[in-house]
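Sequence, please.
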């Protein structure tokens, strides 16, 4: 997630350098053709590129809105996971009949592992990586046969809570309350996976790029009476604005893509871990995430 810090120019330029190179080539070719074959190429009214520019603005506005909705939904999902995680541990501490410290700790650490596993899986990484700190050897071995690691961890906790009820350490009504919290985790997991697996139509981007290049060609023809040392930089600046907005939308539409615009799942998991360990009255060796860069993950 981007922070309120100065974004390096190199980061911005690298996002559109390929497109700007294409614009430079197009601008030079069109300028050469309109100069060499001036008598054969009719005058292009400025209203034509103006109409195309308006159409591009409308399309970009729609794409930005849709992309931000996806990003904001992802952020709300992880915000709900934070809130439900705190409530989950408080429910265990309130409902499970004492002595219960070992059971609660084991379930709590599994939940921390579930958070990290979910975040890693959404980013296309191994959902079982680096979980030995939170899971027992038996739990780690049980994950090997599962494709969906975070779902398997959630199942282990559900079975553990059910076992507490069978051992009369948890009343039926309280079991329902805790089970509702785990259902919330399952729902949040499913919503995040839906965003990850639902791809924004790629043809939308291709058609948008095509229209932008068409707009630049018509604009270049309309500006053929302007000297090249002014026309080419003008085309680059105008195209950079359109392409940067398009890149912004493309990044926001994939909130789990491990980019600076990503949902800060690692930071959120770090916060959940600290909160849970504090609730367990344990010493916290994990420091709150701090970034010296312009973004956090």
């Amino acid at each position: 997630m981007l922070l309120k810090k100065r974004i390096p120019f190199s980061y911005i330029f690298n996002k559109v350098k390929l497109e700007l190179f294409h614009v430079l080539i197009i601008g030079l070719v069109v300028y050469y053709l309109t100069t060499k074959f001036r008598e054969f190429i009719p005058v292009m009214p400025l209203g034509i590129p103006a109409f195309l520019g308006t159409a591009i603005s409308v399309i970009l506005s729609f794409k930005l809105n849709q992309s931000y909705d996806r990003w904001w939904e992802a952020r709300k999902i992880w915000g709900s996971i934070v809130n439900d995680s705190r409530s989950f541990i408080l429910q265990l501490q309130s409902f499970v009949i004492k002595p219960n410290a070992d059971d609660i700790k084991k379930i709590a650490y599994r939940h921390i592992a579930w958070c990290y596993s979910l975040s890693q899986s959404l980013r296309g990484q191994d959902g079982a990586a680096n979980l030995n700190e939170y899971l027992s050897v038996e739990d780690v071995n049980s994950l090997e046969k599962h494709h969906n690691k975070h779902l398997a961890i959630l199942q282990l906790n559900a079975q553990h809570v059910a076992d507490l009820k069978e051992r009369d350490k948890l009343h039926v009504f309280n079991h329902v309350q805790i089970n509702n919290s785990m259902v919330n985790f399952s729902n949040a997991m499913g919503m995040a996976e839906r965003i990850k697996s639902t791809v924004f139509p790629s043809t939308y981007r291709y058609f948008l790029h095509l229209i932008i290049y068409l707009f630049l060609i018509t604009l270049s023809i309309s500006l053929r009476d302007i000297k090249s040392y002014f026309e080419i930089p003008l085309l680059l600046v105008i195209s950079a604005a359109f392409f940067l907005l398009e890149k912004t939308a493309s990044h926001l539409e994939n909130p789990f893509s491990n980019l600076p615009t990503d949902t800060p799942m690692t930071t959120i998991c770090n916060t959940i871990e600290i909160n849970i360990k504090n609730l367990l009255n344990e010493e916290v060796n994990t420091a709150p995430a701090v970034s010296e860069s312009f973004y956090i993950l």
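The longest helix spans residues 47-95.
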